[in-house]
Specification:
267 residues; mainly beta; twelve-stranded antiparallel beta barrel; two-stranded antiparallel sheet; 16 strands; 4% helix
């Protein structure tokens, strides 16, 4: 049974996340799952992410808020605090672009059929693009998600498309390409409370002439209780010379669940 936390904790958590860029996916992997949060259930992801490409980016804390609004739909919000260290120049830190979105599960997984969901996210333009904290434009992401469990093994497939906004610098529009994304992730139940994770994902670069990414992650999820989960993952590019990046990607954090409404109000 999911633990119901007091209203004071709910208020504090809402303030934390509300004052909380985002990675278009629920941690610790890049690929996303199908199930939505139950109606009235709040999920908070708190952690830290380190990624090294042409620059070093640290997200501490990384934050995501998920709220179930029906048995088949949830709302999401992300806006982590980031520190960016380019290969040349001074480091910058501050809040990154916020991401707001929703996920709709239109087919629940059955004994012989996979579960399916579609998500829509908008990455806003609230962070500073000159400082490297934001992209300087609004992006829109659509993702199809499929998931099927076979005993101790679960497979997850993602196919996404991001409409990339074109920022303006020095009065001139900077050309960007839309991005295709594909991923295949796996979960392995190795103990009643523990799952090992792995994934392979690909996406093209939004900058013309830059190489596409082909990378992989491995990690785990461990449930300490029905409301607290520890998560971690590490990965890198699968291409020679880390072409397309990332050279390294690390995430570690926790997932906290609690009910925002009384059980009798969830039906």
């Amino acid at each position: 049974m999911t633990r119901r936390l007091p209203a004071a904790f709910l208020y504090a958590a809402a303030c934390l996340v509300g004052g909380l860029n985002a990675a278009h996916a629920i941690p610790p992997l890049v690929a996303s799952d199908v199930p939505t949060a139950d109606k009235g259930l709040v999920e908070i992801f708190l952690g830290t992410r380190y990624q090294k490409t042409g620059k070093i980016e640290r997200q501490a804390p990384f934050n995501e808020l998920v709220v179930g609004i029906s048995p088949w739909q949830e709302l999401t919000f992300e806006m982590p605090y980031v520190s960016v260290s380019p290969s040349q120049g001074l480091s910058e830190s501050g809040f990154a672009d916020a991401v707001v979105g929703t996920k709709v599960m239109f087919l629940r997984e059955g004994a012989r059929r996979p579960g399916m969901a579609v998500s829509f996210e908008a990455k806003l333009d609230n962070a500073s693009e000159p400082k490297g904290l934001g992209s300087g434009a609004v992006d829109y992401d659509v993702r199809w998600r499929t998931q099927k469990e076979w005993g101790w093994f679960t497979g997850l497939w993602n196919l996404g498309y991001t409409f990339i906004g074109e920022p303006t610098g020095n009065g001139m529009r900077q050309y960007r390409r839309d991005v295709w994304f594909g991923a295949f992730a796996q979960e392995y139940t190795v103990a009643p409370r523990t799952k090992l994770l792995s994934e392979v994902y690909w996406k093209n670069s939004d900058t013309p002439g830059d190489p596409s990414s082909l990378a992989a992650d491995i990690g785990f999820k461990h449930n300490f209780s029905s409301w607290l989960q520890l998560q971690a993952a590490i990965g890198k590019s699968l291409r020679d010379g880390n072409l397309g990046g990332p050279k390294l990607r690390v995430y570690a954090g926790v997932k906290i669940e609690f009910l925002a409404v009384a059980p009798e109000q969830r039906s």
